[in-house]
Write a structure and sequence with these properties.
Blueprint (H helix, E strand, L loop, with lengths): L7 E2 L2 E2 L8 E6 L6 E2 L5 E2 L10 E8 L11 E4 L5 E5 L2 E7 L3 E5 L15
Antiparallel strand pairs: 1-2, 3-6, 3-9, 4-5, 6-7, 7-10, 8-9
Length: 117
């Protein structure tokens, strides 16, 4: 398995290989309460408009061209399929369902902000 198609969680190899244009990500936040930038606690039951979430890419299929394991991606949490591997919850999606990518490797370009929007 190449590093591009394998995944690691806590430095252990996951027993999974992604196919085609699939991307496996680990979400950054839980479903509990959040804090605003001003420090106000927002309960989990508060009504919020459509909100996108960030996640870390842990594995990609062989036809994925724009993201690599370790990148952070922006996605719509309503368009997701969850899977549990070794007790850890992951989200499985197609590459086309990603809205943006943020990665250290993207900072080398002089006209980039680090995000593909």
């Amino acid at each position: 398995m190449s590093p591009q198609t394998s995944a690691s969680a806590h430095d252990d190899k996951l027993p999974i290989r992604m196919l085609h244009d699939r991307v496996l990500v680990r979400t950054d936040t839980g479903e509990g309460e959040r804090r605003s930038s001003g420090g106000i606690v927002i309960p989990a039951t508060a009504a919020v408009g459509r909100k996108l979430d960030w996640a870390e890419v842990v594995a990609v299929g062989q036809h994925v061209r724009t993201v690599e394991p370790g990148d952070r991606v922006l996605y719509d949490p309503e368009d997701r399929a969850e899977v549990e591997v070794r007790g850890v919850a992951y989200v499985l999606m197609r590459e086309r369902d990603l809205h943006a990518v943020a990665a250290e490797r993207l900072q080398d370009t002089d006209d980039s902000t680090g995000l593909y929007l």
